[in-house]
Amino acid sequence: MNELKSSILIYINHFGLYDYIAYLWLIFTFLILIFLSLLLIKKSAKLSIIMILFSFFLLFIGPFVLKYFLDKTIRPVKIEHVSYKKLHFSNTLIVDSDIKNISKKPYQLCQIETKIYRYSKSKFKTFINKLKPIKYMTILKKVELKAGDTMSNRAVFYNFSYNYDINTSVSAECYGGGL
Questions:
Q1: Domain range for residue 104?
Q2: How many angstroms separate the CA atoms of 36 and 82, rounded?
Q3: Of 57, 73, 89, which one is at a domain's C-terminal end?
Q4: Which of 18, 38, 150, 154 is 20 to 30 A removed from 57 (C-alpha atoms)?
């Protein structure tokens, strides 16, 4: 739970202009839909209730969609060359990756998440295994990552004694100093 709280606080602390505009738009849309549904309550109670439910659904799911959209368009990064090596003599797993800034703005802070999960041939089982990884690590790095630059990342998992096939997943959220 602390990981989620920390991730949300980091995200909110690094809001830019477009983040504020997007979330204000979401709140404004929610309020307009509520107001319209209140106006329609005398003409059609069913439609009004549907609009109220839709507006709350929008308020609940909207922040997740906005964050995904803003990360892909305003703060894009590309994860390259993900590889792992298991050191059998010390039960250590090392995951190496490169993170490339593909935006037009520099980044000062990156939150890098590395997950180790069970290997499966089934796409559905792979999805489920990603939701409950064997090991999980989040690293917060203060960096000067200019547009087009690449930085190396290494996550080391000690006491890793899982003896079956695994997959790795690396994701990154990077934040700059403004627009």
A1: 77-175
A2: 50
A3: 73
A4: 18
